[in-house]
Amino acid sequence: MIHLPDPFPAFDWSSANTFSANALDRCSNLRTDPSFVARSFEDPRARLMLFYGDRVLVTDGDPPRPYLTGDALDAAADAATASIFLGVDPDGVPWFAADVIEAPSPALVASLVDLRTLALEGRAEPSVFGPAAQARAMLFWHHRNRFCGACGHPTELAAAGYQRNCPACGTQHFPRTDPVVIMLIADGDRALLGRQARFTPNMYTCLAGFMEPGETVEDAVRREVAEESGIRVGAIRYLASQPWPFPSNLMLGCLGEALSADITIDHNELEDCRWFDRDEVRAMLAGDHPAGLMTPMRIAIARSLIGAWVAG
Ligand SMILES: [Zn+2]
Fold first, then answer.
1. Is 4 helix (H, G, I), strand (E, B) or coil?
2. 139 Cα: distance to centroid of ligand 1 (angstroms)
3. How far apart are CA 163 and CA 85, in angstroms?
4. Model pTM?
5. 138 Cα–ligand 1 center, Å
6. Residue 159 CA to ligand 1 centre (angstroms)
7. What is the pLDDT along the chain (312 residues), one digit of tens a residue?
8. Distance, CA 164 to ligand 1 centroid (Å)?
């Protein structure tokens, strides 16, 4: 059985994950007011996250900052797409995001860093990763929705970036995120972990997969685990979520109880999958497994799920 304390603790497991904590007030009730958005952009403290694909412009400094302000913001805004309003931080500073339209200059390329690298380096302030995930997912959505899915006509940005409207047929398009279930399946004192061939050698992690339309989180967990490992899953508990901006996923972290033990690996999905006892997983987390096996990088929610399970 999966035991959770009663009463359920107030600790928010989600907020501990990279890309999860986002202190911006998104001001969704003000987005449709052009004067509010324009005033916010004119604020001399305003910040602009400038992206080129999955990479963000990072300015030198300690800590490095993945946003522009002041004159640099003004200059960049001229060479960028219409800005998306992200929100206002606790100090009242408005944040925006935009894409570089043209191929960037070599000087600009040298300052572009992909979000995964930025997070792994651990030098930027933790508070920037939530807004960065929001920005990356929003910009990706705009890229993929430049034409109306109903009639094919070019769409137009509205609501400070939170909507695209079709002037031909009137359809309104809204941003989306793609939910992915990721789960630590336990059989008593053993955890089910697997690896894909493309993973870092020796790295094992939780099974995961995209949710499908018309499916509950629980059914998605049971289906994915059964497909990839042949293990049947009973009780499931949601633990935490994490925006994962590669490009716009929402990871839904769950714990699940195995109802069977014999593994049948789907080799189209996984290179290997097996049971690991708690001591072995503890050694993998600590980096002193005798065979050099390891858990995922610390910015992944899988690492949190594995850690929570090991800690009991
Ligand atoms: Zn249309």
1. coil
2. 20
3. 11
4. 0.92
5. 20
6. 17
7. 555 555 555 567 888 889 999 999 999 999 999 999 999 999 999 999 999 988 999 987 889 999 999 888 887 777 777 789 999 999 999 999 999 867 777 777 778 999 999 999 888 999 999 999 999 999 999 999 999 999 999 999 999 999 999 999 999 999 999 999 999 999 999 999 999 999 999 999 999 999 999 999 999 999 999 999 999 999 999 999 999 999 999 999 999 999 999 999 999 999 999 999 999 999 999 999 999 999 999 899 999 999 999 998
8. 10
